[in-house]
Amino acid sequence: DARMKSRIPLILLACGSFNPITNMHMRLFELARDHLHQTGRYEVIEGIVSPVNDDYRKQGLVSARHRVAMAKLALETSDWIRVDPWESEQEAWTETVNVLRHHYNRLLQSRKEFTRNKWPLQRPPPDCPSRQHTGWHLSKCRNLSFLFVFLVLPELKLLCGADILQTFKTPNLWKEEHVKEIVEKFGLVCVSRAGSDPGQHIHESDLLTKYQHNIFLVKEWIQNEISATQIRKALCRGLSVKYLLPDSVISYIAHHNIYTEESERKNEGDLLQPLR
């Protein structure tokens, strides 16, 4: 599409517990992509789900091995969102800004390899292996030329629920210089639930106001209140969660008996790692 060619390629990165991944988590990506396309400035070429490290110490956080496996199952039906286990595989909890830096550096690295190898600048074949592409994961192989992707370095933005703007004010949870780097260098795409006022949080912060041009507020047009916490509670009580999670994830949870009263007590009384 000629209109898309003049747009800035963009990658959305979502960090979180994904405990478990829900249909709402995946809807955030779809809503954000639609919104960014409607600005006329961007083409979203990839979404990345990055489950948090076990060392985050959140109560009820089950093993990353399971959370990554469930996310992979959930995203089998997506042709543009993938799971990246890097953050979950580190020795310790990684601050969000470092996860963004890691993915950005990988983009730079891929670009370097691209120019060094002088790959042919033509459209890739239709059977391009979209998820396993050399050096980086190109999700829309069929309709994006390599030239477009690598001559215009994609922007990388953090995708989140609008409630994250509130957490920026929580003492010691975020370092101010990290928040600055996230909004200045990368950017935020915040999907707000009905009844929340993310604009107010931006207005109350000098830093967020200064960089508000790099904060995209996306309105949810259909109320979606699926909460992973409520889902775990329902699973512990033996209630149905069908149509809230993909069937493949529900089967995985049942097969491995993941969410129990015991798993909900994990890390009980622990301080979150960033607050230590």
TrEMBL record:
Annotated organism of origin: Tinamus guttatus
Protein's cellular compartments: Mitochondrion
InterPro entries noted in UniProt: Cyt_trans-like, Euk_NMN_adenylyltrnsfrase, NadD/NMNAT, NMNAT_euk, Rossmann-like_a/b/a_fold
Keyword Transferase attributed: yes
Name the UniProt record assigns to this protein: Nicotinamide-nucleotide adenylyltransferase
Main location, first listed in the record: mitochondrion
GO molecular function, one term: ATP binding
Record-stated family: Belongs to the eukaryotic NMN adenylyltransferase family.
